[in-house]
Each structure stands twice: as structure tokens, then as C-alpha cells.
Design brief:
Length: about 325
């Protein structure tokens, strides 16, 4: 036996012993794969040893080849067993970590609530839709024509002093009420019609406990043949009954709006006090003429209320500024 043959046999046996010990010590699949490449890869230690076979006598090469195959198969077997063991352990650990205990209490997440302003708007829309009205909307950026002139409020009309308006450099304005929606809708539709128009409006009011520069309104409009003030009173009585949940005494006080004639303020007796909640009236003939309706044939009713004011009554809120805050201590009470 030549020295080269003995050296190769010794190297192969040593490689086998070292590799088996290293395989058994690996704790994860990534380390095991690195070990496989180190021992059995194209540039691995086994390949390095077998390069010495070229120096052997031709008769000794089969012996080394057989021993090398034996070492390779032994290492592959050890690698496969260790791979299966590590994979099983990994899967078991993952299953254990992902196991759900269905008896454990769930994570508490506070339930959201509808904001009081949205609640009032939604309730009002539901009531009027139930009475046959259609929801209509319009732009918050308006022209002077739709916000004032078409609503029987020309440039020199003293009623403009009732609403301190946000004017823009181009002559347009932020609407001071949702009544422009009525004009826009009537221009595109022929009577009979019934609409409810909720939306945000803007006025240059000084912000205090009962006033805001940005607030919300809900208005209704109905135009048909033979509509009278009695229809208006009946509609508003039913609205108040459904909104407050009880039949309440109503009081109609004469008032003035440029787009209705006659006009009235509506008070309800709530918790022993008379509270103003609505403005209303019969549609002024000039408004009907502005949209091409014949006031000799058609009549109409209109009414509107401030959402914030009604919300303050229903939810007993003492300061309008609270409804615009993000104070959870306040919102969670509602």
C-alpha cells in the first residue's frame, strides 16, 4: 500500500468523523445547508480530497473511489436525517406559537359611534324620505345669483344684512344657506317635486357658545298644484314628532324670509320651555318665476333648520363648540 493511498483513506475517514459531528451540532436549516456545501459541494472538502486520486496507481483508484462513495452516502444520510429533524422542530415551534386559545378573552376595541351632527342629519333625511322627499345636494362654493338673487334677494335688498357672507376675490361666495340647492334643482326638474337638502354652510359669525362660522342646515322644498300653508304645518308637525319621539306643542310665529311669503318661525315646547327650531314659509312667487314656474299654477312650501341647534337640544349640549372638538371625554357621553 502506497503512502498516497494511506493518506487519502485517512483523510476520507477523518472527513467522515468530523462531518458527522458537525452535522449533529447544527441548530437550524441555514447552518445545515452551509455545512452541506462545505463538505459535498463542487468546491467542498470531499472534492478537494478526491483530486489526489490522480497521483495514485491505477489499481488503487477503485478502492479510494469506493471509499469516497461510502463517505458521501453516509454524509448525505446524516444530512437528510438532521434536515428532517430540524424541519419537524421548526414546524412544531411554529404551530405552538400560532396556536389560538379560544377560551381567552378578545382584545377590547372601543366601538365607534355616529357623531351627534351626523345622527341628526341622518334622522332628518330618514324622516323626510319616508314622507316622499328626495335627497338633493349642491356646491358649497356658490354664485351671488344662486345664493341671493334667485331667492328674491337682489343686491340692494336689506335682507342681505341678515347674513354676513364670505366673499371671494372672483365674486363668488361660500353659501350662507342650503337654499341655492332648491334653485338648482328646480331649474332641472318640473313640478311636482319634493326634496330635502342637507349640507354645510358658512357665515361670518363670531364664534361663541351658540354660534359658529361653519355649521350645517337641512332644508326641504315641495312644489305642486294646491300646496298650502296647512300642508307645511302638517309636514313639520310630523317631522318634530318623529325627531323628538313624542307629540310636542308647536308654535308658529310670524317672521320674515325673502324667499317665502308668508314666513314663520317654529317653536316647540320641550322640557317646559319654548325653543325655536325651524324657519319656514310658503315659497315666494318671485322664486317660482326665477326658475320658470308659473306661480298662478304652482305653489310650494319650504322649511329649514340648523343641525347644531337641534343637536344641542336633543343631546343637551351646552356649548356648540363641543361638537367640533375631538375630546373623547365629551364624545363618549353621547
Amino acid at each position: 500500500m502506497t503512502t498516497q493511498l494511506t493518506d487519502l483513506e485517512t483523510q476520507l475517514q477523518t472527513l467522515r468523523t468530523e462531518a458527522i459531528g458537525a452535522i449533529a451540532s447544527r441548530e437550524n436549516l441555514e447552518q445545515l445547508e452551509q455545512l452541506r456545501v462545505n463538505y459535498l459541494g463542487k468546491k467542498g472538502q470531499l472534492s478537494q480530497i478526491l483530486r489526489g486520486m490522480g497521483k495514485l496507481d491505477p489499481g488503487d483508484r477503485p478502492r479510494i473511489g469506493a471509499l469516497a462513495n461510502e463517505v458521501k452516502e453516509a454524509l448525505q444520510s446524516e444530512l437528510e436525517q438532521r434536515h428532517n429533524a430540524l424541519l419537524s422542530a421548526q414546524i412544531e415551534a411554529q404551530l405552538k406559537a400560532e396556536t389560538l386559545d379560544v377560551t381567552m378573552p378578545g382584545v377590547y376595541r372601543p366601538q365607534g359611534r355616529v357623531h351627534p351632527l351626523n345622527e341628526v342629519i341622518d334622522r332628518a333625511i330618514d324622516i323626510f324620505v319616508g314622507l316622499g322627499y328626495t335627497v338633493a345636494s349642491g356646491p358649497e362654493l356658490e354664485s351671488d345669483y344662486y345664493n341671493f338673487e334667485a331667492l328674491n334677494t337682489p343686491a340692494d335688498h336689506p335682507a342681505r344684512d341678515m347674513q354676513d357672507t364670505f366673499y371671494l376675490p372672483d365674486g363668488n361666495l361660500l353659501r350662507t344657506h342650503t337654499s341655492p340647492v332648491q334653485i338648482r334643482y328646480m331649474e332641472k326638474h318640473e313640478p311636482p317635486l319634493r326634496i330635502v337638502a342637507p349640507g354645510r354652510v358658512y357665515r361670518r359669525d363670531t364664534v361663541d357658545a351658540t354660534h359658529a362660522a361653519v355649521f350645517h342646515q337641512v332644508e326641504i322644498l315641495a312644489v305642486d298644484k294646491g300646496i298650502t300653508f296647512c300642508d307645511l304645518k302638517g309636514t313639520l308637525k310630523e317631522f318634530v314628532r318623529q325627531m323628538f319621539g313624542v307629540d310636542l306643542p308647536l308654535r308658529f310665529r310670524p317672521s320674515y324670509f325673502p324667499f317665502t311669503e308668508p314666513s314663520a318661525e317654529v317653536d316647540v315646547q320641550w322640557q317646559g320651555k319654548w325653543l325655536e327650531v325651524l324657519g319656514c314659509g310658503s315659497v315666494d312667487p318671485n322664486v317660482l318665476k326665477a326658475v320658470g314656474y308659473d306661480p298662478e299654477v304652482y305653489t310650494g312650501l319650504a322649511a329649514g333648520f340648523g343641525v347644531e341647534r337641534l343637536a344641542m337640544v336633543l343631546y343637551e349640549i351646552d356649548d356648540i363648540r363641543r361638537v367640533y372638538s375631538s375630546d373623547l371625554r365629551f364624545l363618549q357621553q353621547l
